[in-house]
Amino acid sequence: MTLLSVNLNKIAVLRNSRGGHEPDICHAAQTCIDAGCGGITVHPRPDQRHVRPDDVRALAAMLVGRAEYNIEGNPFAPARGEYPGLVALAREVRPTQVTLVPDGDGQITSDHGFDLAHDIDRLRPLVAELNELGCRVSLFVDAGVQDFALAAAIGVQRIEIYTGPYAQAFADGQPASMLAACADTAYRAQQAGLAVNAGHDLSQANLGAFKAAIPGLAEVSIGHALIGEALYQGLAITVRNYLQILR
């Protein structure tokens, strides 16, 4: 079955808006794991506006042997204050997977993937180091990318398809074209020997159609919609709802 990795950034946003320790991100992770999810995702940023380095470390300590740990971020963003950099964090906590995302401080959220032909030489040494640490490496890409042989050649094992445009097309009632683009991208990646993840704005409403269109979908990372839905349904129930869709 496709693995569900719950992104807990929004738990940290809520905590940070008040200060202190509540809601507790490790308690949220425990609730999701108890409900059956197979992974936890965080996306620390240099400005520390949500998940902070101490969260990354605390989650690493509790997740060992219990769930996959996926850390997302921009590998080119320099260290700043208490943020040591993405690769440095991976060196500390050795997550299951590191998803490389070309985001910047000015973005409210991730909104595009890598240009593989342009970025591959810069990514090469970072991917090599992450592989040496024992981390699976995934690259965030847009639907329509075709240069997957380049990614495979430098040691990337997976891609994550940016599904924001698909989610918007679904909301607009015209998902067919974007869904076809995502399916074609997944097929091309798999033909190059890469496994396929997906994430961004996936929800209970649009996930079923996406899953049906992508044979062999390895993982979905879902945070914003899931945490929003959990405000009404409860976190454990919401996680179980997503797992049912993925079955």
Keywords, please?
TIM Barrel, 11 helices, 8-stranded parallel barrel, globular, alpha/beta, single chain, 247 residues
Which architecture name does CATH use?
Answer: Alpha-Beta Barrel
Q: What gap, in angstroms, lies between the N and C termini?
A: 6 Å
Largest sheet: 8 strands, parallel, barrel
What is the residue-averaged pLDDT? Answer: 95
How many strands? 8
Helicity, as a percent range: 40-55%
The dominant shape is globular
Helix and strand run: EHHEHEHEHEHEHHEHEHH
Rg to the nearest angstrom? 17 Å
CATH topology, by name, is TIM Barrel
Relative strand content: 15-25%
- Structural class, from helix and strand content? alpha/beta
What is the count of helical runs?
A: 11
How many domains? 1
Report on this model:
The protein has 247 residues and is an alpha/beta fold. The protein has a single domain, classed as TIM Barrel. 47% of the residues lie in helices and 16% in strands. It is built from 11 helices and 8 strands. It has helices at residues 9-18, 25-34, 53-63, 86-93, 116-132, 148-153, 164-171, 176-191, 207-213, 224-233, 235-246; strands spanning 3-7, 39-42, 68-73, 97-100, 136-141, 158-162, 195-199, 219-222. Strand 4 (97-100), helix 5 (116-132) and strand 5 form a beta-alpha-beta unit. The protein is globular, with a radius of gyration of 17 Å.
